[in-house]
Known about the structure:
Number of helices: 5
Order of helices and strands: HHEEEEHEEEEEEHH
CATH topology: Nucleoside Triphosphate Pyrophosphohydrolase
CATH superfamily: Nucleoside Triphosphate Pyrophosphohydrolase
CATH class: Alpha Beta
Mean pLDDT: 95
Low-confidence stretches: none
Distance between the termini: 29 Å
Number of strands: 10
Number of domains: 1
Helix content: 25-40%
Amino acid sequence: MNLIEEIRAYQPFNIQEEKDRINILRFLETYDDAFDRKNELAHMTASAWVVDPSHTKVLMAYHRIYDSWSWLGGHCDGERDCLKVALKEVKEEAGIDDVRPLSDRIFSLEVLTVDSHIRKGEYVPSHLHLNVTYLLEADDSQILHIKEDENSGVAWFPLDEAVARSNEKWFREHIYTKLNEKLRKMYENN
């Protein structure tokens, strides 16, 4: 199943996901370069909500551009397999090798605003990240390593503390809280 089919089949968790799902599909069906950051209006990204085996902690990185603890992930840069991108980004940003999907299905969808900024000496205009999130698991005893050009710290936090550590109000209130709620619902009967 390709990504458009996966997103069409995805059952939104809330109104944010329903509205964002519609907009992501519209963009993918309209723009041939949706997976390339050269599209300065919007482009596809993949993120990971990485939990430990007990599902009580989440892995976060202190992101240099956003000056905040945040989830791991990045640009698709031409790759159409968003799960592959999410796995690659976690390995690169946290320096760990043992990370695996708890499911190959989409865990969450988001359209995220990105303010203009300077990246590697170049101006990047404000744009949208059309984001697909996956639920991944990693052993929290692995040694973590920062990716100096992107983050200044990588650490495990209890679920609610991970939310509180973010300096980005929208992410705290609407994204990270939602991801924890979805995680808890998935495993509340286990």
